[in-house]
């Protein structure tokens, strides 16, 4: 399709016939097909002649095109001294646009170059030529034309913008990318002088300076952007992102606060702030940011999940559960949300709900590694050791040879080894720990504890000495080595070892508590108390463990009033301290006094930690003292299911079955208690019970 040949003649007449004097209103009111084609360059004649005025001027002042064009021709003489032919230039300009609009960029470019030939000093035609060259991919030629446009009209920002855009087109990975970025920056810096209030210039400069690894200039550009009116907080957010990536979260948060001050209802700034707080472990602040974002955006599952995750990481499991359950009523939970809900239920002690959640997730996503892992943990914490062992054994097997699962494989094996310890399968546990220690020497600490738990004292002492020879300041190894010495019948050496460690680490409370415990096991009550009092005097706001241990010392030396007073002081500080509630209840039950009160204390402890085997044992023992043997058996067996290798639980079950006359069961539990016990005094006490039982059984047998 070609424009009619009459266009050229009409253009000449329109622009050169001195007898035509038209107002803009008259030109604009023409609606013939011919003028509709001429209209673009007819208006171009008006613009070039400088006649485009405001509405009032247009209505009042007709335009003498002959005079205007004559002045234009004089002002825009060609380089060869010939006058510019504006009519022909406008014709080819319009023709180029027509070709371009009809998808023929090559012919459009040819026409635009002809327009330029008739008006070589026109900045606008140079600009249009550069634009068409840019569309055809000829960037080098486009740059030359754009640069000429800028020289012809140095106050016009458009050529600078065009050049900047051309320089930004090459890929960052292409050769010379930095050189092109620098050229783009030079154009933008020139634009900054021409249009200082144009926020685009400052924002783009900030981005480019960061790409060029010149952050100081980038920050300055964004700061300048932020000084312009009505720009929101986009520049501050960009600076915050830079500081976040540079590992300076404090500075990043400072700029995000500025962004929110500039734009208080910015969802992007709130999301960025919440995510940053999450990554830096400030989970409560992250939750506050996500809560504000939720109030701004309304029901938004992505924000709700982020809020729930922050609350979970902050330890607010109840609120995490509430939020995710509420979300589940409105929309189907995705895999990540279901996993998080299961974990929150697990951590809150709602083990049955957690197990159901993980099983349902595995029905929907069979083989999900994380769901299998947490299901195994939940089973272990509810005493389902054998099923948990199957889960972790499968995870260990499935991760074998998978490099991506290397870190997880170590975690799976550690959990499996810990389960073997709980089940009393010490050889399996030690075998796994040895295997892992060959890959990661840090696992030798767990191997040392496994030797100690298995009462393989010689191997434990040898490994402990080796670890301390390598690193005398290894506190964890030092404590385990000292405890092993005490259990191996060398209490004096154990105390000496911990005293030496305490001289080097006087503020370490783990050393203090374990040293006190060693004195307590040797019935050196004054020393046990003195160690704790010295530590408390150094730190008036002492850790609760020091007061708890001191109360235990008073209880063991039968100073029950002082022990109870100290336990109640701890409960005044923290009524939810389950360890204190349990110990106080057990102390009363063991003495056979205020038994209903004892049951109440232990029930409170179990409400906080419902699957704690030691607390279940305390409740069973309290019922035993109340002579409620049915309830006693229920809770003691539940405790045994939860904790496989506790000599105290086995002793209590032995006492229960001795009371009920089930002497074979009593004998078996007494024997187990003696076999796994570590406290020499306690072991000797149970051994005497076992001997008495054997005599009773012998008399009964001879009587028959």
**Taking all residues together, what is the mean pLDDT?**
86
Q: Please tell me what the overall shape is.
A: elongated
**Largest sheet at a glance?**
none
Approximate helicity band: over 70%
Radius of gyration of CA atoms, rounded to a whole number: 43 Å
In the predicted model, the low-confidence regions spanning at least 5 consecutive residues are: 1-82
Q: Based on DSSP secondary structure assignment, what is the total number of beta strands?
A: 0
What count of helical segments does DSSP give? 40
Write the layout of secondary structure elements.
Elements: H1 6-16, H2 24-29, H3 33-48, H4 55-60, H5 65-75, H6 86-101, H7 105-118, H8 123-135, H9 139-152, H10 158-167, H11 177-194, H12 199-211, H13 215-226, H14 234-245, H15 249-262, H16 267-279, H17 283-297, H18 301-313, H19 317-330, H20 335-347, H21 351-364, H22 369-381, H23 385-398, H24 406-422, H25 426-439, H26 444-453, H27 457-470, H28 475-487, H29 491-504, H30 509-521, H31 525-538, H32 544-556, H33 560-573, H34 578-591, H35 595-608, H36 613-625, H37 629-642, H38 647-660, H39 663-676, H40 680-703
Helix pairs in contact: 1-3, 1-6, 3-6, 6-7, 7-8, 8-9, 8-10, 9-10, 10-11, 11-12, 12-13, 13-14, 14-15, 15-16, 16-17, 16-18, 17-18, 18-19, 19-20, 20-21, 20-22, 21-22, 22-23, 23-24, 24-25, 25-26, 26-27, 26-28, 27-28, 28-29, 28-30, 29-30, 30-31, 30-32, 31-32, 32-33, 33-34, 34-35, 34-36, 35-36, ...
